[in-house]
Amino acid sequence: DTAVSQTPKYLVTQMGNDKSIKCEQNLGHDTMYWYKQDSKKFLKIMFSYNNKELIINETVPNRFSPKSPDKAHLNLHINSLELGDSAVYFCASSQNGGNQPQHFGDGTRLSIL
Amino acid sequence: GNSVTQMEGPVTLSEEAFLTINCTYTATGYPSLFWYVQYPGEGLQLLLKATKADDKGSNKGFEATYRKETTSFHLEKGSVQVSDSAVYFCALTTTNDYKLSFGAGTTVTVRA
Questions:
Q1: By the 8 A CB rule, do A68 and A2 touch?
Q2: How crowded is residue A63: how many other Cβ atoms within 10 Å of its Cβ?
Q3: How far is CA B14 from the centre of its chain?
C-alpha cells in the first residue's frame, strides 16, 4: 500500500552513462515532482508536473529529462552522468499543486564513480 | 520569491529535554507551512502543517503555530526521545506555486 514508490533505491554507475529513475503514486494526485537533495541535505525542486504537463523546470541541465506517461507516473532520465549528479533524488506528489502537502518517496541514492 | 530560514544545527539534546527549532519565512501570497522529518536513511515524512494564521499543527508531541505577524513557524516538543533523532525541515508553498521551498534542515541528535 505504498503511496509514492520510486525505483531503484540505490544506483551506482560510472560517469558518462545514461540512467533512469521511475516513480509511481497510488494516491490519485494530479501533481508530481522531482527534488534533488545534496550532500548537505539541502532540498531543491527540479521539476513539477500537473496533469502530465510540465509546470516547473528549475534551471536543470537538459541532460535531465522527465517524462510523465500518465498522472500516476513521473520518470526521470539522466544522460551523460557527471560526478556532480551524485545526490539523493526524491519523487513527490500532491493534489492540486500549491498549498497542499506533498507526499514523498523513499528516495533514490545516485552515486557516480 | 518564497524562502525559508531555519535554525542551523546540529542540535544535540538529552532525552526528555525541550526542543525548539526556529523557522521564519518570506512569501509572496498567503503560504501554507509545513514541517517535514527525515529519519536516517529514509525519505521525508510530513510531520505537521498549518494553512492559515494562528493555526497550530501538532503530531507525535510536536507543535508549531503559524504566526503571520512574525512570519514564523517554530517547531517545539516538550520532551524528546532518542527516536526523535532526525533531520527536520521547515517548508512552505503558496497557491499556484507547484513546489515546496525548504529550509536548510536542522539535524537533531537525542542522547539517552
A1: no
A2: 13
A3: 20
Integer Cα distance of A89 and A9 in angstroms: 10
Closest residue to A43, CB basis, from B32, B98, B102: B102
C-alpha distances (whole Å) from B48 to each of A83, B7, B37 are 35, 18, 9
Using a CB-CB cut-off of 8 Å, the residues of chain B touching A106 are 42-43
The SS3 of residue A69 is strand
Per residue in A44-60, pLDDT (tens digit) is 999 999 988 998 888 78
* β-pair partners for B37: B45, B88
Q: Are B103 and B38 in contact (CB under 8 A)?
A: no
pLDDT at A27 > cutoff 70: yes
**Do β-strands B62-65 and B75-77 pair in parallel, antiparallel, or remain unpaired?**
antiparallel
Residue A62 CA to residue B66 CA, distance in Å, equals: 38
Query: Inter-chain contact B34–A101, Cβ cutoff 8 Å?
Result: yes
Mean pLDDT of chain B: 95
Determine the residue among B11, B93, B99, B107 to mutate to test chain A binding: the one whose Cβ has the most chain A Cβ atoms within 10 Å: B99
Q: Kindly list the residues from chain B whose CB atom is less than 8 angstroms away from the CB atom of residue A98.
A: 32, 93-98
Average pLDDT for B39-50: 94
CB contact under 8 A, B104 and A33: no
Beta-carbon contacts of residue A101 (< 8 Å; ≥ 6 apart):
A94, B32, B34, B46, B49
Q: What is the pLDDT of residues B24-40, one digit of tens each?
A: 999 988 899 999 999 99
